[in-house]
Design goal:
heterodimer, A: about 400 residues, alpha/beta, Rossmann fold, 2 domains, eight-stranded mixed beta sheet, five-stranded parallel beta sheet, B: about 450 residues, six-stranded parallel beta sheet, about 45% helix, elongated, transferase (chain A), Glycosyltransferase Family 4 (chain A), glycosyltransferase activity (chain A), Glyco_trans_1 (chain A)
């Protein structure tokens, strides 16, 4: 392998437009690869600005990483969302200019798979990193329109008839994506659960490896911050990172708290939206305890959020591929109450008997909330759990690169 | 319609109605139904109506860029300097409306830089999407013949954002009020044209001063430019690119059998050159009318009514044509004449007419003004007329010894191929300019 290979990273968003968990992973691994002098990284991502010409390209740069922003028009056809030759053309030019040693494909919804064909023609090795179910599900998360987890295992496109709007189009998409994924040299998954499900569903069988995501580790003063907060207010504080949607488990959480016989606690709801709209209009005043909506946090102030809570509520009602917030909490010794939600349980602190089944009523959640309240902050304070850091994730990516770059 | 009555959708509609009310449920239904009916899909980039995403042509380029620049700045991604060792790639944005200028200052640069393993792309300044696209991929930005306008400042600002060094190239003294005020050809043109040039001159000077370096086409123009800018000024001469040599050879091959006439050709690529011809009008008229087998051939823009009636009878005038047609007509002549008034403007002139003539195997007789004499090996490839009487003497010498005229033309062609073709030598391109692109 070249001493310092040049990676062309593709993800729908990238700094300065950081949005979504997969983007955080893509960005942080890229930065570690660059900082550790393991690789050079250039990025392709999207913007959608009406005042700029469709498919024009602007180069941005954050922390020394060039990001080529392709401007996509909004009025694209369904097919262009997963297979867009216009983007393929732009990326082909960029590959010719940049001569990358590897194309690393993260989340490419709205970018489409033509970039894989382009890379293959240019003889650039390809690593696909799966972060969700976009490759096997038109709806990306295997969540049906009524916000119920699809639960197919494996996914068989014929069973999607009642879910998708246009079955013929969805079937063509399914086949196109499977064909394109087969062009990859390696497909990484953040969990065994995701790899097993995707490969069983026909996505590049045999090419998959598990490449566990990293997280932002706590800073050295985290414990002191946490202790200071607890000293100032010993009440238990629960945290929930997500919007008020059924699929993220909000309805279960609300039900569990609604009739709680205690109110000596706080709850922090993180608004992950860019415009602070997720929790607008939600009436929380009738729920017991002190409820507060806090704005989405940047990794630089992540410790402040986690120092302010004692228990993370992770009530996802679908089988997620990883569960970034669970690892962030565990790395800081924050207790987690969670559902049995796919790859989210593949960590060292999992307690199988305490996992709450998807679709279960609020009873078990209420029981574990009361248990946490009964024991107080001194008892819920767990020791930090060993989780993978972004640096460790970057180093393990080097091993993957060594297998595909000649 | 059946697509919208699926059980899961109905459940969702009821759920949203309960959570957010009927209005929101209907609003969402309308949005998703609209997407489906348009054959589209939900986007990560929001729910705006499609019309809001159509390119808004009412935005001026500077407004278009200001929006995205602000966003990049807020995300700390505004400055995007080149931080990797990368092969040089020049993006040229220029005024490509003048075909001769485009050929000699833009298209042939591609050949020159490719010979140095430097990628080179160009765009007309009004083709904003292409121009901006080229900048994103470039390591160096070259402006050709651009005046200071809001649009050219946008390009320059974008180039600075991207950390590109900027070169400004010009091949006429458009920045000089002194040159245009004393340019004698202007006397034959609409006074408004002169007024325009005088008005815009400071805008070209501003462009020179905002660039990192300046390149010009002749040493005379370099001397003049240095009076207007403290920036380093380098010379990159026009030369005979492979297309010129090939088209010239084709014109020679298509010359046809000799018809016994001796043709003196005067080519004029733009308006106002009657003033130059005035310098030799009397001598040329005397030479041509002295023998019925002699002709004056005028190619391009020229007011022939200013010629003596006797000369008109032996004059052939071909209007401004394509470059290939121009070379074809040029090749039918026996010698080219290139008189230039000795003024500040003409002292900046390059020898492109000598290149054209040599390309079709013609000797040239030139004024000792501008860069024309540089291109002539006096007595071998043509004559430098230092005194008024030299024109007639040279013409008579060649007309009376046509074999010599042919040999002189062939030598001019050989010299063009060996000395004035594409080559990164100091007489074509300043070494400092090569170093600037390839440090």
């Amino acid at each position: 392998m070249t001493k310092r290979p040049h990676i062309l990273l593709v993800n729908v968003f990238f700094a300065p437009y950081t949005y979504g968990g997969a983007t955080v992973v893509a960005e942080q691994v890229a930065r570690e690869l660059v900082n550790e002098d393991i690789a050079r990284v250039s990025v392709i991502s999207l913007i959608s600005r009406p005042e700029l010409q469709p498919y024009s390209v602007l180069r941005s740069q954050v922390m020394g990483i060039d990001n080529y922003l392709i401007n996509v028009p909004q009025n694209r056809t369904y097919k262009y969302f997963y297979d867009n030759p216009e983007i393929g053309g732009v990326v082909s030019d960029l590959i010719a200019d940049l001569s990358p040693d590897l194309m690393h494909v993260h989340c490419i919804q709205e970018i489409g798979v033509d970039i894989l064909r382009v890379a293959k023609r240019a003889q650039v090795p390809i690593v696909i990193s799966v972060h969700d179910y976009w490759w096997i599900c038109e709806r990306q998360f295997m969540v049906k329109p009524d916000q119920v987890y699809c639960a197919q295992d494996p996914v068989q496109i014929d069973a999607c008839k009642g879910c998708v709007a246009d079955f013929g189009a969805a079937k063509a998409r399914f086949q196109t994506l499977q064909d394109a994924a087969s062009l990859a040299d390696v497909v990484t998954y953040p969990s065994h659960f995701a790899r097993t499900l995707c490969e069983a569903s026909g996505l590049a069988p045999g090419l998959g490896v598990v490449w566990e995501n990293g997280v932002h580790m706590p800073r050295s003063d985290f414990a002191a911050k946490q202790a200071a907060r607890r000293a100032a207010d010993p009440r238990i504080v629960f945290g929930f990172v997500g919007g008020p949607s059924a699929i993220k488990g909000w309805l279960k959480i609300r039900e569990a708290f609604k009739d709680l016989p205690r109110s000596d606690f706080g709850v922090r709801l993180v608004d992950g939206s860019l415009d602070g709209s997720w929790w607008a209009g939600q009436n929380l005043s009738r729920l017991p305890g002190e409820w507060r909506v806090v704005p989405r946090y940047h990794h630089s102030d992540m410790d402040d959020f986690y120092a302010g809570i004692d228990v993370l509520l992770f009530m996802s009602q679908w089988k997620e591929t990883f569960g970034l917030t669970i690892r962030e909490a565990l790395a800081r010794g924050i207790k987690v109450i969670q559902t049995d939600s796919g790859g989210t349980v593949e960590h060292n602190a999992v307690s199988r008997e305490r996992l709450i089944a998807i679709g279960a009523g609020p009873g078990e959640l209420r029981r574990q909330i009361l248990e946490a309240l009964d024991t107080g902050t001194s008892s819920v304070a767990d020791q930090p759990v060993k989780v993978t850091s972004f640096l460790e994730q970057a180093v393990s990516f080097r091993k993957i690169m060594e297998t595909v770059i000649k | 319609m059946a697509q919208f009555v699926r059980l899961s959708l109905l459940r969702r509609f009821i759920s949203v109605t309960r959570e957010y009310g009927l209005a929101e449920a209907l609003n969402r239904s309308r949005y998703f139904a609209g997407l489906y009916l348009r054959g589209s899909a939900p986007s990560l980039f929001g729910r705006q109506a499609p019309a809001a995403f159509a390119p808004n042509t009412s935005f001026t380029p500077e407004r278009q860029m200001q929006t995205i620049w602000s966003e990049l700045a807020r995300g700390e991604g505004f400055h995007a300097r080149i931080n990797q060792k990368t092969s040089p790639r020049i993006a040229l944005i220029g005024d490509l409306n003048l075909s001769q200028c485009r050929k000699y200052r833009v298209e042939q640069l591609q050949v020159l830089w490719k010979s140095q393993n430097v990628e080179f792309d160009f765009a007309h300044y009004e083709d904003t999407p292409r121009a901006l696209r080229l900048l994103q991929r470039a390591t160096h930005y070259c402006e050709y013949r651009l005046e200071d306008t809001p649009l050219t400042q946008i390009y320059r600002y974008e180039a600075r954002r991207l950390g590109l060094p900027i070169l400004f190239d010009i091949d006429d003294p458009l920045f000089s009020v002194a040159a245009y005020e004393t340019y004698q050809n202007m006397a034959n043109l609409d006074p408004m044209l002169k007024k325009h040039f005088l008005t815009v001159a400071p805008r070209y000077a501003a462009m020179m001063n905002g660039a990192d370096i300046v390149t010009v086409s002749t040493p005379g123009l370099a001397d003049l430019a240095r009076l207007y800018t403290p920036r380093p000024v380098y010379v990159r001469r026009n030369f005979a690119d492979p297309d010129t040599l090939q088209n010239g050879a084709a014109a020679i091959a298509a010359r046809g059998p000799a018809d016994g006439l001796f043709r003196v050709v005067f080519a004029s690529g733009s308006q106002g050159h009657e003033a130059d011809f005035d310098l030799i009008k009397t001598d040329v008229a005397a030479f041509v009318t002295a023998d019925p087998t002699r002709r004056l051939t005028i190619l391009g823009h020229f007011q022939t009514d200013k010629l003596p009636a006797s000369l008109m009878k032996q004059t052939e005038h071909h209007p401004f044509l394509s470059y290939d047609a121009y070379l074809t007509n040029l090749a039918r002549a026996d010698v080219a004449v290139m008189p230039l008034q000795d003024d500040l403007f003409n002292r900046c002139k390059s020898g492109v007419r000598v290149i054209d003539a040599a390309a079709v195997g013609l000797a040239s007789i030139v004024s000792a003004v501008g860069d024309l004499p540089t291109m002539i090996d006096h007595g071998r490839t043509g004559f430098i007329a230092s005194a008024p009487s030299d024109w007639r003497l040279a013409l008579e010498a060649l007309a009376n010894d046509r074999a010599r005229a042919r040999v002189m033309g062939s030598t001019a062609r050989e010299t063009l191929e060996t000395r004035w073709s594409v080559q990164a030598e100091p007489h074509i391109i300043a070494p400092a300019l090569l170093d600037w692109v390839k440090p």
